[in-house]
Specification:
Blueprint: H1 2-13, E1 29-30, E2 33-34, H2 39-45, E3 49-54, E4 58-65, E5 68-69, H3 75-79, E6 84-90, E7 97-103, H4 116-126, E8 135-137, E9 140-144, E10 148-154, E11 165-171
Antiparallel strand pairs: 1-2, 3-4, 4-5, 4-6, 6-7, 7-11, 8-9, 9-10, 10-11
């Protein structure tokens, strides 16, 4: 999954455009995961969420189910159609969510056969996402503005690194934002 995530980042990095944001970053919310959402607030809704440090300045959220970590599965997210949380990153100084990637394949919103346009429309209807300003690129829709980037992808399980139906949200405070 990490290789696939970096493949998405590589595609987005070759795309140079910017616009003012239709919605403020703090309003971007998918399946109860909000961009710029404080970890303490996130934990109220997701009691199994725990912070895990990766290196000196990378903090991610994992979900503790029982005695061990099942790092990508959370019952609250699953109730909203998310199959797995591929990553949810927190800024180490502000303790706020700065990026996240969620997979919806084989959940209530999508499977490998769901057309990209249908998946995007379902996400926009159910969650707080911009309505205008998206650019279609191969198997994804990308929204880029001054404060965040959103990539909605549906690769239909076609490649070895297939992710299926997923969304990546990256805020300007994320190290990933500088990759674009």
């Amino acid at each position: 999954m990490k290789v696939a995530l970096f493949s998405v980042l590589a595609v987005l990095s070759s795309t140079a455009w910017s616009q003012s944001c239709e919605l403020p970053a703090a309003q971007i919310k998918v399946a109860s995961v909000g961009l710029q959402q404080p970890f303490a607030q996130f934990k109220l809704t997701h009691p199994t969420a725990e912070k895990a440090a990766f290196g000196s300045d990378a903090v991610h959220i994992q979900f503790k189910n029982g005695k061990s970590y099942a790092d990508s599965h959370d019952s609250v997210l699953q109730q909203q159609g998310v199959t797995s949380a591929m990553h949810i990153a927190i800024h180490p100084k502000t303790d706020r969510i700065v990026s996240y990637a969620l997979n919806f394949t084989n959940g209530s919103l999508a499977d490998f056969d769901t057309p990209l346009d249908t998946f995007k429309q379902r996400l926009q209807q159910k969650f707080t996402l911009p309505k205008q300003g998206w650019k279609k690129q191969d198997n994804s829709y990308v929204y880029r503005c001054d404060d965040y980037i959103i990539d909605i992808e549906q690769d239909h399980g076609a490649d070895r690194q297939a992710m299926g139906a997923s969304i990546l949200v990256v805020g300007k405070d994320s190290d990933l934002f500088g990759e674009y």
